[in-house]
Amino acid sequence: MSVRDVTHLHEEFDGERLPPGQRETERFPVLSKSGTPSWSPDTWEFEVWGAVDEPRSFSLEAFTDLPHETQRQDFHCVTGWSRFDNEFTGVTFPTLADLAGVDPEATHVMFHGFDDYTTDLPLDACMREEVLFAWELDGEPLPDDHGGPVRVVTPHKYAYKGAKWVDGVEFLTDHERGYWEKRGYSDSANPWNEERYS
Ligand SMILES: Nc1nc2c(c(=O)[nH]1)N[C@H]1C(S)=C(S)[C@@H](COP(=O)(O)O)O[C@H]1N2
Ligand SMILES: [Mo]
């Protein structure tokens, strides 16, 4: 199976592979605002709503049947560690967005996790091939602590933009702030500009 390598995307942001102020770790620390929530494959449901032509919902089976790919990505946590060369498998944001049909008025996106986490991004920061709804890490089902069954990964942003336990994506016509964004973290979160706080 071919792997799409997106570990060079730092070049687009005129930065080194290791962003300023970060150190590389081999470990994969777990950072969650309130612990790991439980879920069941029978009741898990993913929803797409807001400024779209057609709101969609998917069972876990239907979601993981969507067209998907494996990417090699780096992961940058705002608290200062980066983990290189993670292989995430999932559906890309643009693929999912096309299935729902995004309204021309949509400007922003809110991701929802079932631990009541939210995080927002401008639509154009999401319509990128490396923004994945991922259900596998390094060839194994995504561990619950890291957001299983499905999480978002945003290798072009600090990792708080990647909602773990994601079960909803909402298309917005205005800017709203997510959980950490309301608490002082940067809206834009570009690691190569060290956009950590707003
Ligand atoms: N649903 C949810 N997603 C979340 C969080 C959270 O608390 N809940 N924490 C964020 C933060 S601050 C970081 S750094 C990464 C951590 O991902 P990890 O635990 O897999 O390292 O998840 C992000 N996504
Ligand atoms: Mo974080």
TrEMBL record:
Gene3D superfamilies reported in the protein's UniProt record: Oxidoreductase, molybdopterin-binding domain
Region (Disordered): 1-25
Pfam families in the record: Oxidored_molyb (PF00174)
Start and end residues of each Oxidoreductase molybdopterin-binding domain: 36-180
PANTHER family according to UniProt: OXIDOREDUCTASE MOLYBDOPTERIN-BINDING DOMAIN-CONTAINING PROTEIN (PTHR43032:SF4), PROTEIN-METHIONINE-SULFOXIDE REDUCTASE (PTHR43032)
Protein name (Swiss-Prot/TrEMBL): Sulfite oxidase-like oxidoreductase
Species, as recorded: Halomarina ordinaria
